[in-house]
Structures are given as C-alpha cells and as structure tokens.
Amino acid sequence: MMSFAGxxxxxxxxxxxxxxxxxxxxxxxxxxxxxxxxxxxxxxxxLGLIVVFLFMEGLxxxxxxSVNDFIFGRYWYPTDEPPDFGIFALIMASLAVTTxxxxxxxxxxxxxxxxxxxxxxxxxxxxxxxxxxLLAALPSVVIGFxxxxxxxxxxxxxxxxxxxxxxxxxxxxxxxxxxxxxxxxSEDAIFSVPTELKEASLALGATxxxxxxxxxxxxxxxxxxxxIILGMSRAxxxxxxxxxxxxxxxxxxxxxxxxxxxxxxxxxxxxAEAPFRGDHYYALFxxxxxxxxxxLLFNVVADHIAHKxxxxxxxxx
Amino acid sequence: xxxxxxxxxxPGAMSSSALKGAEKEQNDMIKPSHARERRRxxxxxxxxxxxxIAAAVNGTALAIIIYFLVARGWRAINWTFLxxxxxxxxxxGGILPCIIGTLCLSMGAILVALPIGVASAIYLNEYxxxxxxxxxxxxxxxxxxxxxxxxxxxxxxxxxVVLLGFGVSILSGALTxxxxxxxxxxxxxxxxxxxxxxxxxxxxxxxxxxxxQTIYRVVLPAALPGILTGAILGIxxxxxxxxxxxxxxxxxxxxxxxxxxxxxxxxxPYHIYVLATxxxxxxxxxHLQYGTALVLIVLVLGLNLVAIVYRARLRRRLG
Lengths: 317, 319
Description:
Chain A is mainly α. Chain A has 13 helices and 2 strands; from the N terminus they run αααββαααααααααα. Chain A has 2 domains: 2-61; 66-308, MetI-like (MetI-like fold, Orthogonal Bundle). Chain A has helices at 2-40, 42-58, 67-72, 88-119, 122-137, 140-159, 167-191, 195-203, 208-219, 221-237, 240-245, 263-270, 279-308, and strands spanning 76-77, 84-85. The longest helix of chain A is centred in the N-terminal third of the chain and has 39 residues, at 2-40. Chain B is globular, with a radius of gyration of 31 Å.
C-alpha cells in the first residue's frame, strides 16, 4: 500500500516535470515560429522602405512643379535656367519601347512556350529550356553593349539611318530580355493543364493543333496573361539597355527609328551630375516614383489575374 | 423508297442499296473527307513549324550574342588582362580591380540575401497557413521581384549611402543587391523545401521531434542542395547587375584595391558601361570592352550552367 502510494507520488512528480518540459518546448517552438514570421516580413518591409524613400526624396519637387505639369510637361531641361521638369516625353518613350518590345516578345515567348510544353520531345525540351534560362541570365549591360556595337551599326547601314541607337534597337534588345519571363511562366501554365482535358479533346477527333488552340490555351489563358504582363513589367523597368541603345533624345517618338529617352535611362544618366538634394535630384526621384507606379500596376494586375481567374490545373503562380 | 422507312426496318430486311446509303451518310458524319483531313494536317504541321521557328529564334539570339562576344573578345584576354589594374586612363592594362569588385559585391549580396531568403522560405513553406497574411507576404515578394533595378539604385542611394551614411561603398552596394536578390533566393528555397517529401516530416514528428527539430535536422539537410542552387543563381544575378550599383558602390576608376567594406569599388558591369559610353577613347578601347564583357558572361553564364546542371541531377535523383 505504502509503496504503491510512493510510486504514485513519484509518477505525479515525473509527469509534472514532463509537463513543465513540454511547456518549455512549446514556448520555444512558438518563439521560433514568431522569429521566422518576422523574417518573412523582410520582403514586404523592403518594399515599404522603397516606397518611403522614393517619396521622401521625390515629393519635394512638387513644391516647385505641379504634378500635372511634371507628368504632362513637354519639356525636360533640368539643367537650364530656369529649368523645365516635364517628363511626358520620357513616359511616352518608356511606353513606346515597351509596346514595340511586346509586339516582338509576346508571340515569340508564347509560341516558344507552346513548343516546349506541347510539341517538343523530352530530349529537345531538356536542351531548349536551359537556353531560355541562359538568355534570362545574360546581364543587361552585356545585351546593351551588344545592341550598341553590333545591332546599331547593322541597323544604321541596312535602313540608312542617322543613328542605329533608337527606339527599334532598344525594343529589340528589350524583347529578348522579356521573352524568357513570358516563356517560362507561360510554359508552366500550359504544362499544368490537366491531361484529361487534352485527352478528351483528342478523343473527340480534334487534331493536336485544334486541341492546343481550343482547349489548352483557353485553359491556361490566365497564366499566359500573367506571363505577358510580367514580361512587359520587366521591359518597362529595364535600365541598362535603354540607357545604352535608345539614343537618349528627349522627344516624343513619332517613328520607329527615333532616338528616345525612357524614364530609367534618364534617371541613370543624370543622377551622377544632379546636385545632391537639388531640384534635379528630386525630379529624378519623382521620375522613379512614376516608374515604380507603372511596374507596381503591372504586377498587381498580374497578381489579380493569377488569383481571380484561377486556372484549370495547378500552375504555381 | 425513302430513308425514314429504311431505318425503321430490321437490319436483315434492309435492301442492299439502302444499306449503302445509310453507311455513306454515317461516314460523312464521322469521317471527314480526305481533302479536309489533309488540310487540317497541313495546317497543324505549319503551325508547329512556326512554334519551332520561335524556339529557334531564341536559341539563335543567344548564340549570336555569345558568338560576337567570344569572337571579338577572346583576343583581349590574357594573363595581364586578368591580373593587372587598368593603366593610362583605362586605355590599357587589365581589369583585376573590376573582377575583385564584382566578386565582393555578389558575395556580399548573397551574405545578406541567403539567410533572410531561406528563413522567409521556411516560414512560407513550413509554418504559414493559407490566409490573408500569407497573401500579403506573397504580394510583397512578387512586387519586390518586379521593382526596376534602377529604383533599387535610388533606394540604396537614399537609405544606405545617404541616410545611414555608408557612402558609396561595397557595403551599400551589397545591401542594395541583396535586397534585389532576395526574391530569387526565396523562390528557389521554397521550391527546394517543397520538394522534400512530407513523409520525412511525418517520420520525424512521429519520433517525437518538435517542429523546429524536424526542420533543422530533417527538412533543411534534405533541401540544402536545392537551396545552394538558388544561391548560385542569386550570385550570378547580383554579379551581372549594373543599375543598382551605379549610385551605391561603383566608381569609374579607383587607384587601389579596396581595403574595407566602406571603400568604393570598380565592377565588371559598370566598367563595360563606362568604357563603352563615357571613356576617353571609346573606339580605341573596344577590345577591352569586348574582353570585359566576355569575362562577365563567362562568370555569369558559368554560374548559371553549374546551377542548371546541378539542379537537373537533383531532380533526376528526387523524381
């Protein structure tokens, strides 16, 4: 009887000990979880800091120039006396190079994705996918350099132009920078269309092409749309290419072969000379705000499409 | 004799001519005529040809770029070029300070981005439950990945160079590049963690390990090769970027090698840009520009190839 009670007490003691340990373990686990959560917030914090600092250094210009005059002003003479801070020509140049680049990169990117996901044999796919990845890995300054020393003289000679550094050259280089983005995200979306859909279509007598056009592309259209928008976002934000090959003239483009000066080029070229915290410096940061808002819009739209029109199948977008 | 009557009759009672007629009609419905079939096939073949051409254009573009850089750049590359600093206002000599600068910057960037990126990925893949918080974090990562490189440059200038007083330095550049590389690392690490089978986790938890012990002792070691692949890709990305370091770390010319992280630095991408657009002798230094570009793409594409081959082997082992 005595010994039994003793064991019981020992047991209770042991269980207490165990529970205490368990609670300690639980507390530690919670702390670790919170630690990781805090670090996971780093990305969004960085994004927030980017916004804060862009606005902090960019907003002062609007004490001198109204938002309307800044965005729709035709003249960008930041070093003249008095200076003109109108970035309409820069915005138009950015939109123009992005549009022309998209005209080239969307068909090429999507068709390559279709080829990889539907037509190519496994062996060819293993060969072509790394090529697309390497194309994405090429440093932008190298592509810009290539456009300057190889493509520009070529264009100048073939089309008999005053300069090979122009809108078309920049768009061409940008296209090849956004093709990998468009291609790999589209391919992911196309590849994840369930085989049942494809098999059903083929069983009804449709050819492979008809299946692709009528079944596979519609089923993955949201993924493809996301890919296209992200590709365009990459093109509008790209700096080195437009800095080196777009020509640099601050004018609203009227022809495909006009030299232009998109927003990133203007920021990169002028920041070194702009007096610290002078009007020019503020104006360049404000241009950064406009550029940032453009890319943010592209990304938010892409995110919206990817979530709202959740595609058939399980693409990891 | 009309068709409707025939179809109502017993098959055996059907006259032979009526049978033929019915069969023909059925054939018309199910099997299209040969001409149409051929048209569909030709159409398909030409469309697939178009797909193939699109893929070929990409390959050709890559090949042309690499061809020109190698053909015009390899002559510039020799021992002096790789081991000497530039001389005579950068019209002669080598690119050693740029190589060292790029290595410093990309290593610094990965030192910043790897711990934060892997920890973020661990939260996203191991702890987070679907919901609004997760959605916001993901939106943050996606948008950070989409921020233009020049905007990162502005951000680095305002925060690290000016506000925190690091000046134009390796530290400012590495932090800026690290912020830019973060989404790449998070993406690759998440993929690596996702590839670890749930049975590993269940076995560990079943043996009484806590969640953290499971992550630290089981999941992370299994995901490590994939995470390293991501790190290599991140280094490659950081090494090739120009815009983020233009205002934060890089200079035209520096007479000495850096001695601390607060020194400004020369870097390969910026060197190409400077020589090609703002140098004193743009035409005369073409061979140096090609040589520098060749060194940069060998470095960047080499890192990427290593990562691609390594990853392909990993996938084969896992799948």
